[in-house]
Write a sequence for this structure.
């Protein structure tokens, strides 16, 4: 039987003549940190103090004892090396490697001694390849496209430049006799009610003449075949298989697949995974609006409620199974049903996809190409094919995986970023995205769709980022315009869009110890990586709020920090509400981005310390099955009921045209009907449309068809669950905040129950936010922005207070913020 011996102990890292204890899996940066030889690059401007690490070669060593007899072959298996290295055993070269995204296997039968992995500087290698193949354009000033390494190691507009090296995945010895399973490729389908698992197995033999049998078991059903040569196919059919569904559409049953390779003497090797039975299609048919991009799972068409995922740590070896589970559970709890693994990062670990399988999160997987022209010559081309083949097969068992995507923004870049002229006919990656990768997917994983890129219109007949065709990235709004401009287009599928905000206050305080915080303080600027990021934040705020332009004091910074959080949530809300209200023409939104890899001002909903920004809580409303929204359209104001549930929805709504002082100008009850998985809308009567900056419209409705306009209530940037238990609220203000004559907000605060803060409004209180981390770094509130009308109250749950007893009401009030009259 195949035996496994982990090789994780006894490693050392050689540094300036000394031997440092090394952690495997790990990387040079984390080992130097553990030894106290470098500052934490996440704190202050420590990133710049460790820049030298990526410019040096590094040597890892351990002792490999010869294994006692009993097996015919022993293989050294390295699941992940970052990135270019020589592997030697007692000075004997086992192999040279050059791809972070692959695993490696070497025959070390009967061998022992000093095992060494000598890493070459990623910069040196990338620059050498660039010298041989020629310059290629990219969106950043680093040479990441010249080697197969996590691109964002070289920095991004949200990430630090920390060019890693090391043994970033497990290492082991595998001992075996006669034969082992070298590759198992499971095709999982549903055929006329049968769950079918077709296991394509490749076998490595040490005895060619041995008779081998493969037997498989799935859901209590067994099948077996004899192995002829070095391959075989075992097919198992499971009657009445329960279907795996995305979250919100059904359950996520998973079936254990157990595969056994044996000969006349008994078991030789085993393989086990979990699979789910489901079908997935991508409807890209032409229609009167262009050409679509709609996911269809088990025959059900769905609006994808997505987030973009980046590596959750700049040092990926630190990401644990528990951390993946925490972050992805946060996504699921926010109503997310699709996670796009972005192409400047990684093929994530099994722990990531296992969590998605269990949580019902669909996975859109980019191949690791992003924002650059990639050479198609050797040594890159062979590495690209090898990594694609390995990872397609590795990830195939996971029912959550529903799409392979060739790249991020490279087809768009070729057309719009002056690449075509600069390349002058040189290769740039098109052969990967339109040739190699679709062939690999079609050969190995025909159960899933492939798309050449994001954005991509489906062919060169249309502009790659044409909103009427395929996937669209909406970045002009953040870069140059007001977020109201999201309403000017109805793309078929919005695969990227977003708005920046700084991280939580406690995250800033930890990352910038001792610094007097201001938007342009040294640490804040260092932790803002976007091109003119602060300028874009300032211009975005100025369109809506009166904010100080210079001379920030502590109170001014606190106000800026709060308002940028509000603006981020409002911007994303504006886009999602508009696009969801146009389902099925628009079939999905993927917010940029869910998470951060370090403390930084970015587009994330969850910051680098894992704290949830107000945007995170806003996503709970925006991605709920039922959403009520007020939409300005060319022919007037529309009330839309967006229903993604399986049941029709007759939504009774009370519309109130109100003054900001709290008076009701006009009121009416209406009913808007939305079918299952559909949108219903109606024109708001003219006498209810607010006029001028002193008025606004509030719509109180309900999830279940009843309506109660009193009681506990809330409202986010465009409305938050309110109007009573089970209620929904939508708000429409016809003017920017700096034009609205808000009354001075007045509200009472009480802390009568441990862990609960109750706020009662005496005036309109718009976008109330409890920043619980200001009370204690470990504290977190259970909701974000809340809008209250006069007489309404909201109870905010707070977990994680570390103070003796409960903070009193006045202490809590110091952590409460809301929109105030223009100064």
């Amino acid at each position: 039987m195949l035996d496994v011996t982990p090789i994780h102990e006894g490693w050392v890292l050689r540094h300036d003549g000394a031997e440092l204890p090394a952690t495997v899996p790990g990387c040079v940066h984390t080992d130097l940190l553990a030894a106290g030889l470098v500052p934490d690059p996440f704190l202050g401007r420590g990133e710049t103090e460790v820049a030298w690490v990526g410019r040096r070669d590094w040597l890892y060593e351990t002792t490999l004892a010869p294994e006692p007899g009993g097996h015919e072959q022993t293989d050294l298996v390295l699941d992940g090396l970052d990135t270019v290295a020589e592997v030697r055993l007692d000075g004997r070269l086992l192999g040279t490697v050059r791809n972070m995204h692959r695993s490696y296997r070497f025959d070390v039968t009967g061998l022992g001694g000093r095992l060494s992995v000598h890493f070459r500087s990623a910069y040196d290698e990338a620059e050498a390849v660039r010298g041989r193949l020629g310059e290629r354009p990219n969106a950043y000033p680093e040479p990441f496209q010249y080697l197969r390494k996590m691109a964002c190691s070289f920095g991004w507009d949200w990430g630090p430049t920390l060019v890693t090296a090391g043994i970033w995945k497990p290492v082991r010895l595998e001992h075996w006799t006669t034969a082992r399973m070298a590759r198992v490729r499971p095709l999982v389908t549903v055929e006329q009610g049968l769950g079918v698992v077709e296991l394509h197995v490749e076998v490595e033999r040490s005895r060619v003449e041995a008779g081998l049998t493969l037997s498989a078991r799935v859901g209590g059903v067994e099948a077996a075949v004899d192995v002829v040569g070095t391959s075989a196919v075992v097919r198992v059919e499971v009657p009445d298989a329960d279907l795996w569904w995305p979250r919100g559409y059904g359950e996520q049953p998973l079936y254990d697949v157990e595969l056994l390779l044996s000969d006349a003497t008994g078991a030789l090797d085993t393989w086990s995974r979990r699979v789910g039975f489901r079908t997935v299609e991508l409807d890209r048919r032409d229609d009167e609006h262009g050409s679509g991009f709609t996911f269809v799972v088990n025959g059900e068409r769905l609006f994808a409620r997505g987030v973009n995922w980046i590596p959750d740590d700049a040092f990926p070896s630190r990401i644990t199974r528990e951390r993946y589970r925490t972050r992805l559970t946060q996504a699921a709890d926010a109503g997310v049903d699709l996670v796009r693994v972005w192409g400047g990062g990684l093929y994530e670990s099994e722990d990531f996809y296992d969590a998605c399988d269990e949580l019902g999160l669909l996975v859109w997987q980019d191949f690791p190409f992003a924002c650059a022209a990639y050479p198609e010559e050797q040594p890159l081309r062979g590495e690209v094919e090898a990594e694609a083949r390995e990872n397609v097969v590795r990830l195939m068992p996971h029912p959550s995986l529903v799409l392979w995507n060739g790249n991020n923004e490279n087809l768009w870049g070729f057309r719009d970023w002056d690449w075509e002229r600069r390349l002058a006919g040189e290769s740039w990656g098109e052969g990967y995205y339109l040739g190699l990768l679709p062939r690999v997917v079609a050969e190995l994983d025909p159960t899933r769709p492939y798309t050449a890129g994001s954005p991509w219109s489906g062919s060169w007949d249309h502009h790659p980022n044409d909103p009427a065709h395929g996937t669209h990235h909406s970045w002009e709004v953040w870069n140059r315009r007001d977020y109201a401009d999201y309403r000017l287009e109805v793309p078929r599928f919005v695969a990227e869009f977003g708005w920046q905000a700084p991280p939580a206050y406690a995250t800033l305080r930890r990352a910038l110890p001792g610094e007097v915080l201001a938007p342009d303080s040294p640490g804040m600027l260092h932790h803002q990586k976007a091109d003119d990021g602060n300028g874009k934040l300032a211009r975005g705020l100025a369109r809506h709020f009166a904010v100080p332009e210079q001379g920030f004091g502590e109170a001014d910074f606190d106000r800026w920090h709060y308002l940028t959080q509000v603006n981020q949530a409002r911007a994303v809300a504006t886009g999602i509400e508009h696009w969801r209200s146009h389902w099925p023409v628009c079939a999905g939104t993927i917010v940029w981005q869910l998470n951060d890899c370090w403390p930084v001002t970015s587009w994330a909903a969850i910051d680098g310390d894992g704290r949830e920004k107000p945007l995170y809580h806003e996503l709970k409303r925006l991605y709920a099955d039922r959403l009520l929204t007020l939409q300005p359209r060319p022919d007037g104001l529309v009330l839309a009921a967006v229903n993604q549930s399986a049941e029709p929805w007759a939504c009774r709504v009370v519309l109130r045209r109100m003054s900001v002082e709290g008076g009701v100008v006009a009121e009416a009850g209406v009913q808007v009907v939305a079918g299952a998985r559909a949108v219903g809308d109606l024109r708001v009567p003219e006498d209810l449309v607010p006029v001028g900056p002193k008025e606004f419209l509030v719509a109180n409705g309900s999830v279940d068809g009843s309506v109660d306009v009193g009681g506990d209530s809330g409202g986010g940037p465009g409305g938050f669950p309110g109007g009573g238990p089970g209620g929904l609220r939508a708000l429409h203000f016809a003017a920017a905040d700096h034009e609205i004559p808000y009354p001075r907000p007045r509200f009472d605060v009480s802390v009568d129950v441990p862990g609960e803060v109750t706020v009662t409004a005496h005036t309109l209180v718009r976008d109330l936010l409890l920043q619980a981390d200001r009370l204690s770094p470990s504290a977190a509130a259970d909701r974000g922005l809340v809008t209250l009308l006069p007489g309404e109250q909201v109870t905010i749950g707070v977990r994680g207070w570390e103070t003796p007893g409960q903070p009193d009401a006045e202490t809590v009030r110091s952590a409460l913020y809301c929109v105030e009259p223009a100064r």
Remarks:
- Residues 763 and 790 are 4 Å apart (CA to CA).
- The first strand starts at residue 3 and ends at 6.
